[in-house]
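haha ok so turns out i had the wrong file open the whole time. this is the CORRECT one, sorry everyone. sequence first:
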Amino acid sequence: MLNAILSILLISFLVLYFKTRLKKYSWSDFSRKFGNCNGEFGVYNLTKKTEECTYADKKIIDKYDTVFKTEIDKDTSYMIKISSSNAKGCEIDMLNYVKPITDKHDTQSVTLRIQTNPWRYAPHYDTINQIAHMLHGTKKWILWNTHFKNIDETKKFLRDINNLNYEDMKIYLKNREIQYETKIMRPGDSLYIKCGTWHYVENVNTTRGCIMLNLELENDTLYSLEENFKKLWPIQYTKYVNNEFY
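then structure:
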């Protein structure tokens, strides 16, 4: 009888332990800890075509619970984006909260992204080596490597794919005989993305949103890669060098 009682207590403890662990870094956890903080976030109209990249229609300074708790329509998304390069106030507190994860990697910078559902980001590549780490929610990725003869050919490729959704992207790449791989990321998953790797990302709409870390690693960007990035996404490049997110 005693052994049976001890077994039940042990199972109850383990269930409570793992439930507690799962709650850390969740949507409700961030809302409880940081919802009353004032900060900047972007508002995105997902019905608009992306001419260059996925840009915010406007930016708002308000309590973060506007993002965590507001009911929004299916064609709109909010994003909080916090970078270690210019964080201040509550933003520093939020980055310190995830240090147990970021300290495991030798990073040059850390970016925390909190996005409501639905969310998608236009196809692109980055000029940094990075690790994406999921804290909450589910994201699906398409990743591929391809090369073009010149910048005009690359721009045509971008015009063809810029407004495709996840399934249409796969069809397009398959028809062009461009090999690709897909990844589904859930809480606790990490994904290494080498500079120059093309990717397209969508949130899977099973929760209120997704919380993800981007960990920038030691950079070995080729000069030509960065020069082409400037030509393909000039607005994005200017925002990046000026630490502008929205």
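The chain has one domain: 2-241.
again sry for the mixup
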